């Protein structure tokens, strides 16, 4: 197939642009008013289109939310990949992961969609996205494992700790839900949390001359 035939038609580009405007307006309104207080009429008015036009793209408000979750996850994964690929050393790569997760927890968009996930209907329909999300997560998972193995080879990380375990510990440690209350109550800022997590984590996986034998 030629490159020319792969280029979207004008009509398709217009459709994609309109869909993007709808998603952006919905994201803004959900953040401003909340899921329940935002109607499709509100979203259409923000874009400057008729409500019926939204139905050319999404069957319902819940479908629109799922599209936003899918879009947001894709952007999140891409940012994580960029962080892992741009850092120079294994330690810097893992630092970037911690900083990425903690900064996400402080983002208003994350808070908005975390609240939506408590909606039973939305939560139940998340199953529709899980396979695609799992596939998208494969590349950052691979990059993270490579960074850990590089750190072991360089003598920075404990070689006796399984790579998969280190990766799982890291992603569990930086779960944004864990620190949300601290941020809400201003006990600690996202930057302070990231600094403390890096100190704690790197001490735990550091290679030391007196590492005891496994078993």
Blueprint of the fold:
Layout: H1 3-6, H2 10-33, H3 40-47, H4 51-54, H5 61-86, H6 90-105, H7 108-116, H8 120-125, H9 127-153, H10 163-173, H11 176-184, H12 190-205
Low-confidence stretches: 211-215
Spatial gap, N to C terminus: 57 Å
Specify the CATH architecture of the largest domain.
Orthogonal Bundle
| Name of the CATH superfamily of the largest domain | Tetracycline Repressor, domain 2
Shape, please? Answer: elongated
Key words describing this protein structure:
mainly alpha, Arc Repressor Mutant, subunit A, Tetracycline Repressor, domain 2
Fold and architecture overview:
The protein folds into two domains: 9-58, Arc Repressor Mutant, subunit A; 69-205, Tetracycline Repressor, domain 2 (Orthogonal Bundle). It contains twelve helices and no strands. The chain has helices spanning 3-6, 10-33, 40-47, 51-54, 61-86, 90-105, 108-116, 120-125, 127-153, 163-173, 176-184, 190-205. Helix 6 (90-105) runs antiparallel to helix 9 (127-153) and helix 6 packs antiparallel against helix 12. The chain is elongated, with a radius of gyration of 21 Å. The N and C termini lie far apart (57 Å).
